[in-house]
Each structure stands twice: as C-alpha cells, then as structure tokens.
Write a structure and sequence with these properties.
Layout: H1 8-18, E1 23-31, E2 35-42, H2 47-58
Antiparallel strand pairs: 1-2
Length: 72
C-alpha cells in the first residue's frame, strides 16, 4: 500500500534491480482516496534477502505498508 505519486513504482523496482532480484509480475492500481496498491511477484532466494528487500521498500517515501502475501 502506497501513496499515489510519480516515481514510486520506479523506486520499488530499483530496489529489486539493485539486489539482482527477478520480477515475475507487477500489478499497480489506484485505490480512490486511499493511495495505490502495488502487487509484485518476485523470486527470492532466502529469508535474509526477503528481509533486506522488505526493509528497503519500507524506507521509501510514500510506502505505507509492505507485506508478504503468498509463499510458493
């Protein structure tokens, strides 16, 4: 869950790119009056990588909440 602002999706994907993490899918949509919802499917090697990525995403301006939804 994020604010709806220009460049936010780029900020998120840059974190993944810097960490050499593959993105399998991305869906972003605005939630009228409540910001935006961005759902990503990414390939994570281990829990340490997951924690590092989630922490970096939480520090981005405009990010309200980051959560792991699904474990394959």
């Amino acid at each position: 869950h994020t604010d709806d602002r220009p460049g936010l999706l780029n900020d998120l994907t840059s974190i993944l790119s810097t960490d050499n993490t593959n993105i399998s899918s991305v869906e972003a949509r605005t939630d009228t009056g409540r910001g935006a919802i961005i759902e990503m499917t990414v390939e994570i090697a281990n829990m340490k990588q997951l924690e590092r990525i989630l922490g970096a995403m939480r520090r981005i301006s405009g990010v309200r909440d980051v959560e792991r939804i699904h474990k394959l």
